[in-house]
Write a structure and sequence with these properties.
Length: 143
């Protein structure tokens, strides 16, 4: 199962990007210079806010969902992913199935990796997609 960026890396990425953009816009759009402290204070504050929000919803995580009926659960999972706009893109014969949205939409939603074992499904993707998927997919209790 591939591992995506966790909370720390995602936080650092969004913090540095949003702080830099905020500092740049503040210096270019106002009378403040690069030597003034105000653009850096605003950049740090907005960077922390943006990074906290983004890292909580965009980090990668893995969930494990137990099930009893493999066929029923597999069908239910496939339907839920299709309802969310994901299509499988790897051969179903492999142990790992990859789902992604269309080319442009996949830039913002990432991919979902599914590995079906004997009694459980291991699903890896962005936390916001997995939370939504968990609400839709109820663990199967019978065939």
């Amino acid at each position: 199962m591939p591992q995506g960026p966790g909370f720390a890396f995602t936080f650092l990425y969004y913090f540095s990007l949003s702080a830099f953009i905020t500092i740049l816009v503040t210096v270019q759009g106002t009378n403040f210079s690069w030597q003034d402290g105000f653009p850096y204070q605003v950049g740090t504050l907005l960077g922390l806010i943006a990074a906290t929000f983004s890292a909580t919803s965009n980090r990668s995580t893995t969930i494990v969902i137990p099930f009893v009926g493999r066929k029923k659960f597999s069908y239910q999972l496939e339907q839920a992913l299709e309802d969310m706009g994901f299509k499988h893109c790897e051969p179903r014969e492999s142990a790992l199935t990859v789902y992604r949205k269309s080319a442009v939409r996949s830039l913002f939603s990432g991919q979902i990796y599914v590995q079906l074992d004997e009694k459980k499904a291991t699903i890896h993707g962005r936390v916001r997609n997995l939370k939504r998927l968990q609400k839709i997919v109820v663990p199967s209790t019978n065939d």
